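Propose amino acids for all 413 sites.
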């Protein structure tokens, strides 16, 4: 079964051409407000190679005149790899401690991720090896939580670490959860500038968190969320955890309290901009779609990485009318790209269908928003993906022409 893929950092190599005119732009339907969940495990995210493309020159950068009208602030934690698992931890199977050769494994990584989620940053990266920094972080946790301080993870330390109320590191900032409201998925959280995977964030949330709701048009709202819970009655999504908001909301990105998640203006661009259309044409030709029908579904412009330069983020999808959701027509595609001022696009997600295909479950990609989700002043890209039997949402950073997947959640067959 085809799985959707959000693709990290791609820059496409192909030559510029002026021989084929840009097709007349077609105004697409408005982006979705809700998404359908249908499927079985969290879809995999597969990176692709880096590429670059020459394109025709663009007009002057889109001026940003809108003033940011956003609420108070929020806070953050370290990149942790997502695990499809229930909120309750697995039982301990061995005591973790310093030894030679170094102990390693999924249990070590789970402990490291949990410590980082609690703000014990002396650990360093969660690499699955129980070294000196891991022992130091365990000792700090034990001392903070009034346990015997021996640097070893035995039953008592394990149970306290994975309980609902372990004490975070002294001076650690609050955990700031992030929820995709279209699906109700907990995407994860951030703490002290670090990312916390959904499984770790969910274990630390008691419910009652107050969120600010962001949508691309600048509208703001607040809501209160429940404790994250799986859907026990729907087996395909039993490992995906949901947060229900009060009042009930079905669109936008919910961010816990702490900071302004839109510190710089984000404005809508022109979906019929000829030069943006040319960029997409060149990408499609490079992937074998020789006579592309270009449909821009969304354009947002902002200074993503705080360098004073405006990037435009473009989403484009073509799904031939009358085609089954499970099939792809020749010329179908979906992509999201960042267009910096130098006009060389950086691909975030992409899928191309030069040939028609039956029951290949093609993906479509959407740009949900541009938000500062870890409090560093730069904007992350929030993307959604849908295919015949499922979908996912993901958060990407953009730095120095590189995109990196930092959090994702979803469910699908």
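Proposal:
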């Amino acid at each position: 079964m085809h799985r959707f893929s959000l693709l990290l950092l791609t820059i496409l190599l192909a030559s510029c051409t002026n021989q084929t005119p840009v097709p007349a732009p077609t105004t697409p339907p408005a982006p979705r407000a809700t998404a359908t969940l249908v499927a079985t495990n969290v879809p995999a995210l597969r990176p692709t190679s880096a590429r670059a493309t020459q394109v025709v020159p663009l007009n002057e950068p889109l001026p940003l005149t809108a003033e940011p009208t956003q609420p108070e602030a929020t806070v953050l934690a370290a990149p942790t790899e997502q695990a499809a698992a229930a909120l309750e931890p697995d039982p301990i199977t061995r005591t973790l401690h310093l030894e030679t050769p170094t102990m390693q494994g999924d249990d070590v990584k789970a402990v490291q991720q949990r410590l980082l989620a609690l703000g014990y940053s002396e650990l360093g990266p969660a690499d699955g090896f129980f070294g000196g920094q891991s022992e130091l972080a365990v000792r700090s946790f034990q001392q903070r939580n009034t346990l015997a301080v021996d640097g070893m993870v035995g039953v008592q330390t394990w149970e306290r670490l994975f309980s609902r109320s372990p004490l975070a590191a002294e001076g650690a900032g609050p955990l700031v959860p992030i929820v995709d409201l279209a699906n109700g998925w907990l995407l994860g959280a951030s703490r002290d500038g670090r990312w916390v995977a959904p499984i770790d964030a969910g274990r630390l949330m008691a419910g009652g968190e107050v969120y600010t709701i962001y949508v691309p048009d600048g509208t703001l709202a607040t809501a209160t969320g429940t404790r994250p819970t799986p859907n026990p009655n729907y087996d395909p999504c039993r490992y995906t955890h949901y947060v229900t908001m009060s009042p009930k909301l079905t669109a936008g990105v919910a961010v816990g309290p702490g900071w302004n998640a839109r510190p710089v203006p984000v404005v809508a661009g022109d979906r019929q901009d000829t030069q943006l259309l040319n960029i997409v044409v060149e990408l499609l030709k490079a992937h074998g779609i020789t006579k592309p029908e270009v449909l821009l579904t969304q354009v947002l412009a902002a200074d993503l990485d705080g360098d004073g330069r405006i990037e435009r983020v473009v989403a484009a999808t073509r799904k031939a009318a009358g085609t089954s959701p499970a099939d792809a027509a020749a010329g179908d595609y979906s992509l999201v790209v960042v267009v910096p001022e130098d006009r060389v696009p950086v691909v975030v997600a992409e899928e191309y269908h030069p040939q028609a295909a039956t029951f290949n479950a093609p993906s479509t990609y959407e740009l949900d928003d541009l938000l500062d989700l870890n409090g560093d002043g730069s904007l992350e890209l929030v993307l959604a993906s849908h295919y015949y039997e499922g979908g996912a949402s993901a958060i990407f950073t953009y730095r120095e022409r590189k995109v990196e997947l930092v959090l994702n959640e979803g469910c699908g067959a």
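Confidence is low (pLDDT under 50) at residues 1-86. The first strand starts at residue 73 and ends at 74.
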